[in-house]
Design brief:
It is a single chain. The chain has helices spanning about 1-10, 15-35, 50-65, 75-85, 90-110, 115-120, 125-175, 195-205, 235-240, 285-320, 330-355, 370-385, 405-420, 455, 465-470, 480-490; strands at about 180-185, 190-195, 220, 245-250, 260-270, 270-280, 360, 365-370, 390-395, 400-405, 425-435, 440-445, 495-500, 505-510, 520. A hairpin with a 4-residue loop joins strand 1 and strand 2 (about 190-195). By secondary structure, the chain is α+β, with helices and mostly antiparallel strands. It has a six-stranded antiparallel beta sheet with strand order 2-1-6-5-4-3. It has a five-stranded mixed beta sheet with strand order 9-11-12-14-13, with helices on one face. Strands 7-15 form a two-stranded antiparallel sheet. It starts with a helix and ends with a strand. Helix 3 (about 50-65) packs parallel to helix 5. The chain is built from 16 helices and 15 strands.
């Protein structure tokens, strides 16, 4: 832009030697910028161009200073060049000051106008150039730091994005591999994640039809016939911030109907509910197997009870009609053994029937519990003496409660039987009974083999027997405690225990003294 202005103001400038020198050097430097591969040289090497640019400005300024005002300010370009390079900012500032001073003083010195006043007059311009250099260097340095931070942040972001992609691919792979339906809902009930297994479950339940009132949905309760109320569906419970496990629902119809066990966990963001994750496991085969087992146990128990009752009846008749003097002792003893084993087998069948029926009816009446305890102890005394176990009674006399006496006797018999059986090396079994805070308390304590922590978790599981019991070959089928627990809970009470391996077990039963009568409750 300076050259067109010079041509307009004073065309004769192009004939002056200094002006021509500046033009020729300008052309040469422009060609050098393009032709020379400066990246192959040291970083400061390309400062040759801005330093020589001062010579270009000096030549133009020498002849054109009187015609074109402001030619000295062309020094701003090499000043900016050196400062923006970011290399040696102090040197760049000193060079900017020195070179601009030479540009301004060269005409004064050559024309003899070199008095201190004349030399000092233009010195504001070099100072401005040096300040400009310092400002540009500072801006460039800050910009470089900012760019470095941005690049670092970008690298971290790229790393996070890559990690997120890997995790997302891993999550997708896991969700599509597991044989469990998984879905995630946001706080408003919108589905934000669902794997292919759950999409199949949705199609089976006819949820893809999108019925607004859910009347066409095929989601049923445990009986496989009653439609599950909308409010009780797992998704609706999950949206109410409920967390639950192993809730069984049936989906589909006909031969394609499947049983799903549903688990739900809430999601929270800074303490606020943000949604839920639900997992659906197909447990159809397991549920059918359990139902088949219950049916089998019930059917076999019914089939066994009739002949056993007949056997016991005939044995009773035989034993009553026998003349002790006419029958050898070993025959009479054998018949008594057969009778005892038949009665024991009948009790086992009764236990199986009770477990398979799933309900229990109580017939409560005012009962002397102390008398029940004494009767159970008398009944168990012969078995205890046979294995050298001492029985002790710590019972409150005249202890009255409204209970089913037959069922409470069954509880005491089961607990005493276990305590004696699990004390194979002798010991002491203590029975305690008393009233405390409106409850009937019964305790049976032994110092037998005890239970490990892992066995204690499954004590009230059907057909469970501890490892110690199996090693000791102690007979039993693992139903006594299950039935005991169901009887206690049917009375509105609870049963607990404390056990230590090798040191014995104490079972504690708490039953409210006054409870409602004849309430059928499930056997657990």
């Amino acid at each position: 832009m300076a050259l067109p202005i010079a041509a307009l103001v004073d065309p004769g400038l192009f004939g002056n030697t200094a002006f021509q020198f500046g033009l020729v050097l300008l052309v040469f430097l422009t060609a050098a910028c393009v032709a020379i591969p400066w990246e192959r040289h040291r970083p400061l090497a390309y400062w040759i161009i801005p330093v020589l640019d001062f010579a270009v400005v000096g030549g133009l300024y020498y002849d054109g200073r009187t015609s074109v005002i402001g030619l000295s300010f062309l020094s701003i370009f090499p000043v900016f060049w050196m400062a923006w390079s970011g290399l040696a900012p102090r040197t760049a500032g000193l060079l900017s000051y020195a070179c601009t001073t030479l540009v301004l003083w060269a005409p004064l010195v050559t024309t003899g106008a070199s008095s201190p006043r004349e030399l000092a007059a233009p010195m504001l311009i070099p100072i401005i150039m040096m300040g400009t250099s310092m400002v540009v260097s500072t801006v460039e340095r800050d910009g470089k730091v900012h760019r470095a931070r941005l690049m670092e942040a970008e690298a971290q972001l790229q790393g996070s994005l890559q990690e997120t992609r890997v995790r997302s691919q891993l999550l997708d792979g896991v969700l599509e591999t597991v044989d469990v339906g998984v879905m995630a809902l946001d706080a408003k009930g919108r589905t934000i994640l669902m794997n292919s297994r759950q999409r199949s479950n949705h199609a089976l339940a006819n949820l893809d039809a999108g019925s607004p009132d859910g009347e066409n949905d095929l989601i049923f309760d445990l009986d496989q016939v009653t439609r599950l109320p909308h409010a009780q569906r797992p998704t609706q419970r999950a949206l109410r911030e409920e967390s639950f496990s192993d809730v069984i629902v049936w989906v589909g119809a006909g031969e394609r109907q499947r049983a799903l066990a549903v688990c739900s966990r809430s999601l929270r963001d800074n303490g606020e509910f943000s949604g839920s994750v639900l997992a659906y496991s197909d447990v159809t085969d397991m549920v059918n197997a359990l139902n088949a087992k219950e049916d089998f146990v019930s059917s076999v128990s019914h089939e066994l009870r009739t002949p056993l009752t007949s056997i016991i009846g005939y044995l009773d008749l035989v034993l009553e009609d026998l003349e002790p003097a006419a029958v050898p002792d070993h025959i009479q003893s054998a018949l008594q053994v057969a009778q005892r084993n038949a009665e024991r087998l009948l009790l086992l069948v009764a236990d199986l029937l009770t477990t398979a029926s799933g309900t229990m009816h109580l017939h409560r009446r005012d009962t002397d519990v102390a008398e029940l305890v004494r009767a159970s102890l008398d009944s168990a005394r012969r078995r205890a003496e046979a294995v050298d176990v001492a029985l002790k009674c710590d019972c409150e006399p005249g202890l009255e409660a409204t209970v089913d006496p037959d069922r409470i006797s069954q509880v005491l018999d089961n607990l005493l039987s276990n305590a004696i059986k699990y004390s194979p090396d002798g010991g002491t079994v203590t029975v305690r009974s008393r009233r405390a805070e409106g409850n009937l308390l019964l305790e049976v304590q032994d110092n037998g083999i005890g239970m490990s922590e892992s066995d204690q978790r499954d004590v009230f599981t059907k057909f469970f027997r501890t490892g110690q019991v199996k090693k000791a070959a102690i007979p039993g089928v693992g139903l006594g405690l299950v039935i005991t627990k169901s009887i206690v809970e049917a009375h509105g009470g609870r049963i607990s225990f404390v056990s230590e391996l090798g040191r014995g077990t104490t079972f504690r039963v708490e039953i409210p003294v006054h409870t409602a009568a004849d309430i059928p409750l499930p056997v657990y």
